[in-house]
Amino acid sequence: MRFCQLIDLLQKSYEMEVLKTPVFSEEFKQIQVLTDASRQCEAHTLYFCKDMKQIQLVNSPIMIFVTKTPSSVPDSAFMVIIKEKDFANILSLSRHYLMEDLKAESDLYQFAEAALNGESIPKLINTAAGILGNALILSDANLNIIAHATNFEIMDPLWAENLERRYCTDEFKKKVLENEQMANWSKKDDDAIIIQLEGDPQPKLVSRVVENGRLVGGITMIEHHTPLQHFHFKLLHRVGVILFKKLEDNLYKGGQNSLPSTILYNLLDSSEFGDGAPLPTFDFPQTMQAIVARFLHPISNRHIKRTVTMELEQIFPKGYSIQYKGYIGIVVESISDSQKQKLRNLSHYREVSFGISWPFHHIGDFKRHFNQCIQAIKYAEVLETPDRILEYTDFAYYHLLHSYSGNLSLDHFCHPVLNTLKAYDRVNNSDLYHTLYTYLLCDKNLRQTAANLFIHKNSLTYRLNRIKELTGLDFNHSATIFALIDSFRIQIYLDSIFSNSSP
């Protein structure tokens, strides 16, 4: 702990006279009370002494609190005069602050070690939030949200809206820039400062991160769950520096800087781990699903790719991410409805499509299920599917058709009813073909089918009766229904191939 910081803390409650202001770098790691007639002073030690008349200072400089002004003060001593009645309280409080500081140093060491061991930024920021006891938000120099802690609820409604958008509005940025504390904040000052905008329900502790004289971003702690402590000011800046260093490293390493990510990358990139081959030891979940993201438009900016990766990790904090060629993937245990909605929001904000695989139980099957996601994305593009959350279940049949290598043409497997309805529609300018397809998609629900076709229920009943008259179909025969659904899928697939091959 720095001696000057301790003095600042103590001066809030006690009167004292600083005979010589300590330099900023002077730190202490232990506290001792001087009582001997002579003492060999130790480095990084803060001393307390009631009477220095009989004390001989050796190995100066030292940091010391005394109750009586000595006849002479060594030039190398950083000395503070306190009242004798406050001696015990100041000694006790100093020890308390030192213990808090040492614990914070230990927590920071473990945090840095986790970063070096390949922990993802969403997991790291949750770890840091746990250490500091409050929600944390990491943002770039333009106040775009990079990551935020999910283990503490954001109670500030304005910041909650910012997190939902993933960026801060121009109005919010203007309020920040016009804030008096921000305007008076020295660009060279590494310490965190308290900033509270007009209308803020809680103060915010903010620290900027500067690299090579350039502002790269900042980290914000919202004081809500834990009151501000002195060690918050010290730790927040260091946490921010580590997180931005981690972010920079990830940009150059492509995210493959952890054991699970390395395993996933190797599974995709080589045949080193074939069926039955031993895999490196790592406990993946018993049941898994793969999610793969692909940008709608080519992206070469590595920062954007890493940001999307982190946003995926934010949605699935227990997942294992991977960047492979033009794709971003993550292995998760399961996907909840709320997570699927967050994926949908992210898909529109970042202009990406997400493929979702079938569940699997052995990590050796990851490559096959990663490819399921890719196939879902590709067939959705071919079929011009508007949705961006693409489950392989909805495209598995098209994958099967594409893999078909038999001698018979696929249209041989289409039910003849389809051609009958097409021919009738052409001659009569009707829409029976589309009506039947929609009716089957809606699981033969009359109300839903009519709503999807934007027609009255009675009109739908008329059309279905006309289809029965023309084709003799029995809508209660399950095998017929399955054959019709398969036929429509085959026809959609063949139409898409014809459309893409046409000049």
Automatic annotation (TrEMBL):
Record Pfam families: HTH_30
Taxonomic source organism: Anoxynatronum buryatiense
Coiled coil: none
Protein name listed in UniProt: PucR C-terminal helix-turn-helix domain-containing protein
Residues in PucR C-terminal helix-turn-helix domain copies: 432-484
Annotated PANTHER family: CARBOHYDRATE DIACID REGULATOR, DNA-BINDING TRANSCRIPTIONAL ACTIVATOR ADER
InterPro entries membership: CdaR-like_regulators, PucR_C-HTH_dom, PucR_C-HTH_sf
